[in-house]
Every structure is written in structure tokens, then in C-alpha cells.
Amino acid sequence: MAIEGPLKELGIHDVFQLLDLSRKTGTLRVASDLRQNAGTVYFEDGVVVGAEIRSNSHPLGRLLVRAGRLSEADLSRARAQQSAGDPRRLGEILVAEGLVSQRDLNRYVRHQIEEVVFELVGWSEGYFAFEDGKQSEWPTEAATRIPTGVLLMEAARRTDEWSRIEKKITHLGLVPRLAPVVDTAAPLDLLPAEWEVLTVIDGERSVRELASALGRPEFEVARTLFGLATAGIILLEDPARRAVEAIGSADLPILLGEVDHLLGAGDPDAAAQAAEQAVAGHPEEALAHLAHGRALLAAGRYAESSESLWQAVQLDPASAPAQRLFGLTLAAMGRFREAAQVWDQWKRMAEKPPEEDAQMAAVERARQAALALELALRGSRD
User: Fold this and answer.
1) What is the C-alpha separation between 193 and 37, in angstroms, rounded?
2) Which of 12, 188, 243, 331 is the residue whose CA sits 20 to 30 A from 310?
3) What pTM, to 2 d.p., does this model score?
4) Out of 3.40.50.720, 3.40.50.2000, 1.10.10.10, 3.90.78.10, which CATH number does the structure's domain 166-237 have?
């Protein structure tokens, strides 16, 4: 029986179920031009016995080496035997030579198959084709049989659990690092799998790279890291955000100049984005928050502007521009009494040079008008 067609008409989940229920033996090939990827799954009597994918072939030997179960020298000797004409599969040689236990071999071959199937089940577009029958030996390193129904149920469970994990681990490029040590008498009570992950965290490798180094599925490592992060044992950093912050910390004057330029060009939204970079790189600099507040005020985002300007005032209470703009923002939001109080504080801060007399007079008029309006509103309510 030949089965083929686009995944939009018959989902990959349904294809797996059909092959399971009909107890088919053969090769299922799935390809996606959008993903530029292709995978192959081998079935025997409806049971999955092997799987591979172009984007991550997971060669067994490399997987065992990365996991520390096999040395490079041992892997080279096993491959040399194959090159010399040994017809046995790599896994069979490794077990026969006592280099890998049968248990470890089965475990990692199963991981290979599961990771491929779990990725394919997530595809909603592409094309599939099933070739009936077994033409030759399956290209697998161990005789592993996984019931298709078990794989599909595990795939559904992972989908549900990922929705919870993604609240902390938004993508596999995040870099875990150990949290600062807190003095406590209570020892860490961790599972062996958690200790295994904890020992390879170096603050440089991503979640994906840690999974590769451990030779464990990315899902399992992400789930373990989620638990460690929830317990406060590790922190998760986004390298992309770190890069933005590094740029901001090196180029604050340039970023502030860019904010001024964009405001002068009449593009407050772009100015706000430039100011956000300055704040990310200089969270303790009042000037960064002041620039952010100015841009947000120009964009009409008064509530956000007031928060940034309040932060600027807290960092530098003597900043006259921050005080003045903070008052203007509060007045724009209808918080007239608070605005008047801010302006009063601005007047008391320091002596102003003569050239600022006109500006101070204008602020005083605005303060008086705000108070009058507030009193009028109170009277109308009474």
C-alpha cells in the first residue's frame, strides 16, 4: 500500500496512527521545503524501529563521545574495524568489545529515534510518502522497537509541558549560569539528573549546547533547567539581550545623540527604541532614563514616560530637566496637584541663572493654573 500526500491534507500524527493501526512495515519519508529539512522513519509491523533527520543526524558514535560514554580513540578503533570489512553495526562492535554496555547503547539509540519523531510530529506543512516493505536491513545501530502509540502520547505530553517550560526557557539559545551563593544551612537536595546538568553549566554554553554535551534530549535538559531556575539555583540569560546591553554600555553618548536626532526628525517611536537600548546598557544612569522619558512623552505614552522620568529623578534629584519633564507628564495625565508639587521642588532645588527667569515664570504660571484647575474640579465635585 502506497501512502503519500501533503501534510495539510493528512497530518503527520494521523499518518503515524494509520501505519500503527494497519501494522505496516516500510519506510516513511517526510520533507519540508519551508524548513529545508527531511526525515525518515522505519516501521516494522506498525512499530517504529529507526529514524533519522537531515538537520540533526545524531550519529551514535559522536553522541556517545559527547556524553562521556566512549573515548575518541575507542570510536576510531571501532570504525577502523568496519572499514576493514567487519559487517557488524557500530553498536554491535562497541558492545562486543566491552566499550559500551548494551543498556547504554539501547538508551542512546532510543533517544535518537525519539528526538527525530518528536520533531517530525510538530510539522504542519510538507509532503510525506510511505514505501511499503523492507528492502534491506534497517540502518540502525541497535535492535530497538518503540510502540508508535507510546511515541505519539509522549509527543502530546511534551507539547503540554513545553507550554509550561517556555515561561522561563523561551528558546534553546538561552545560557544558564549558576546563581549567586546564598548562605544557608540547608544542603541542596537534587536528583542525579539535576546534578548531572548542574555540573556542566559554565555560563557560556546554551541550553542546546548543554544537551549536546550531555548526549541527552533537549527537552529533558530544558525540563531539568526549568526546575533549577524555579528553585533559584541557576539564572537564565539571553545572549542577544546581553549583546544589546554591551552595545549600550559602550556607546551611551552615541545613543543619546541618536535619541536627540530622531526626536528632531519627528520620529518619537524610533527615538524611544534608541532610548531603550541606553536604559538597558545603563540602568543606573539618570540621563538614559531622562532620554527614554522624553521620547515616550513625545510619543504620547504618558504613563510609561512618567515611570522613566520618575526613575531619572530618583537617580539624580538635582536634575532640573528631569523634574520639569516629570511635572509636564503628570499634568498631561491630569495629575495636577502632583505636577505642582514636582514644580515646587524644582524651584527650590537651586538658584537659577538670570537667563532662566522667563522659563521659571512660565513654570510658575503653569503651576498656578494647575492648582486653580484642581480646585475648580474639586468644587464641581462638591
Assistant:
1) 31
2) 243
3) 0.50
4) 1.10.10.10
